[in-house]
Design a protein that fits this description.
Blueprint lengths: L1 H15 L6 E2 L6 E2 L2 H6 L8 E5 L5 E9 L2 E6 L4 H6 L2
Length: 87
């Protein structure tokens, strides 16, 4: 029982971590990328694959993309759920 509860907690934290990367701005119109996502793409080009650590110690694999006129590391699958909901 304890093992399955621990497994469930670990899986839920892995699934939720990409959702916690964006911090909503004051108007609630989206999010500002975390500093780690900006720093990961410093000196890189759009489309480059990078990885970075979150403040919680998770390692995120991402691709550098231009967002809001900045090159930002965007995790794999980021935003897919939102675009699927709009269909």
């Amino acid at each position: 029982m304890q093992k399955s509860v621990m497994t469930l907690l670990i899986l839920s934290s892995v699934l939720v971590s990409p959702l916690t990367l964006a911090k909503p701005d004051r108007e609630g119109r989206g999010g500002k990328p975390p500093q780690e996502a900006l720093e990961a793409c410093e000196g890189k080009s759009e489309g480059d694959e990078v990885s970075f650590s979150t403040p919680r110690g998770d390692t995120i694999t991402a691709t550098c993309q231009t967002m809001q006129d900045e090159l930002v590391a965007v995790p794999e699958g980021h935003g897919q759920r939102r675009s699927e909901d709009n269909n």
